[in-house]
Amino acid sequence: MTRELENVSLASISRDWTISRIFEQYPEFVNEVSECLLDYGLHCVGCAANTFESIEQGGYTHGMPDDMIDSIVGDLNKIVSASRQEFKGALICITESAESKVIELISEKDADINEVFLKVSSVKKGCGCGKVSYELTFTKVADEGYNILDVGKIKVLVSDSDREFLKGSSIDYLSESDFEGFRVNNPNVSSSCGCGGSY
What we know:
Hypothetical Protein Aq_1857, Chain: A; SP0561-like; alpha/beta; 30% helix; eight-stranded mixed β-sheet
């Protein structure tokens, strides 16, 4: 079974980011980010404005001075960087939602989770951009040249050739109105094209 992963390039949060962009880029930190914004009095976390109004615009709307807006951005970046220290040194991590979905898919095949590997591979896109995307594959065989990683309840396979490229990446599973599926956040890519390929 193969599933393509959407790639997202990570970057530091800035004043011109919308709240929805933060959630999209850092889905594993939605609760912490929401609490931070609410503590500052930005209550547009759950309203439609979070899709088009930047942090800066939201701050100005609520009468906040520039130094407070800078503090918000600084605290948001601290949340992301501090939380990611939990995975410092780890080759790859899987969020709870992704882990649950992987276990669900394995169970649907009446397979034993202890006997199935989740193989994560980089692949060339077929859209003509020539960039790299990812594939998720379930297998019971650990081929030569692959690293076996115990990530939570999941046994992950990553090839020697992908090891450095995927280092520090996290896999998440999203179920939204405009996207449902696995998404990989890779800090080793600088940007991505519309098809999900990484530069």
